[in-house]
From TrEMBL:
This is Transcriptional repressor. Belongs to the Fur family. Binds 1 Mn(2+) or Fe(2+) ion per subunit. Binds 1 zinc ion per subunit. It holds the Pfam family FUR. Zn(2+) binds at residues 71, 74, 111, 114. Its cofactor is Mn(2+); Fe(2+); Zn(2+). It comes from Clostridium perfringens. The lineage of its organism: Bacteria, Bacillati, Bacillota, Clostridia, Eubacteriales.
Length: 121
């Protein structure tokens, strides 16, 4: 996962990568390790509505999760590092007396490349 930072890998993709340097590893070991790393807060699970659980590194220096733009056509994922929700978070905290610790935002649509290929308007 560290070598593929910025990618959103499935357990099987992680297994395929690890197997290159450690051919004797089993898929069950990879699943157990993923669960442990998730419990430790090193990685987090993503649901990008493609029927697969995907994983990415948690970056402690971010202060918040980054957002994802998911292309419905090519299934590509673009990470948005800017936190555009600061004002909304403050308003929600003020209005509802709710302390927000984190948030996760996914936008689904069509990426620039697919729009060009489809003559999308």
């Amino acid at each position: 996962i560290i070598d593929k930072e910025g990618e959103h890998l499935t357990a099987e993709e992680i297994y395929d990568e690890v197997k290159k340097s450690c051919p004797e590893i089993g898929l069950a070991t990879v699943y157990r390790t993923i669960i442990l790393l998730e419990e430790l807060g090193v990685i987090c699970k993503l649901d990008l509505n493609d029927g697969c659980s995907r994983y990415e590194l948690v970056r402690k220096d971010e202060g918040h999760r980054h957002h994802h733009l998911v292309c419905n056509e090519c299934k590509g994922v673009i990470e948005v590092q800017d936190d555009l929700l600061d004002e909304l978070e403050e308003e929600v905290e003020r209005s509802y007396g709710f302390k927000i610790l984190d948030h996760s935002v996914k936008f689904f649509g069509v990426c620039r490349k697919c729009q060009k290929e489809m003559n999308y308007k």
